[in-house]
Amino acid sequence: MSSSGAEPSIFSRIIDRQIPATIVAETDRLIAFEDIAPKAPVHVVITTKDPQYRNVVELAAGDPALLADLVGLARQIAAERTNGQFRLVFNTGEAAGQTVFHVHAHVLGSPTASETLGEDSLGAL
Length: 125
Ligand code: AMP
What we know:
The active site is at residue 104. InterPro entries: Histidine_triad_HIT, HIT-like, HIT-like_sf. One of its GO terms (molecular function) is catalytic activity. This is HIT domain-containing protein. Helices cover 28% and strands 21% of the residues. By secondary structure, the protein is of the alpha+beta class. It starts with 9 loop residues before the first helix and ends with a helix. It has a single domain (10-105), classed as HIT-like (HIT family, subunit A), CATH 3.30.428.10. It has helices spanning 10-15, 56-62, 64-81, 120-123, and strands spanning 23-26, 30-34, 42-48, 86-89, 104-109. Strands 1-2-3-5-4 form a five-stranded antiparallel beta sheet, with helices on one face. Adenosine monophosphate is lined by residues 10, 19, 21, 33, 35-37, 45, 91, 97-100, 125.
């Protein structure tokens, strides 16, 4: 149980190493892992270790420095894994496709310069 009394999110269980994930980066406050159902050749999820923020709007209001750190980590992951150009998506609300209510960003990209991201990587998120 988390302090709020809610069940831990699937991402908290990844952070606690209760379920496996392919972790690609980690800091004291953030963790990044490969999405289990990738929508692009590179699809990495970055989430906060603190589960208190349900979405990016709450994170921006509550801890803008952590949001800036998250964006910086996205840039770093994209520099390592993509052609340097990437899409950064925060689904916000169920109707927008959010399924895990523990703030996270999707980093979507292609490893080569010749590949472009199709609209599929937006629509199915
Ligand atoms: P969203 O729909 O924006 O809330 O994003 C949640 C994302 O988490 C989806 O893209 C899922 O594929 C991904 N996901 C769910 N469970 C896991 C898991 N165990 N390991 C990695 N990614 C996951």
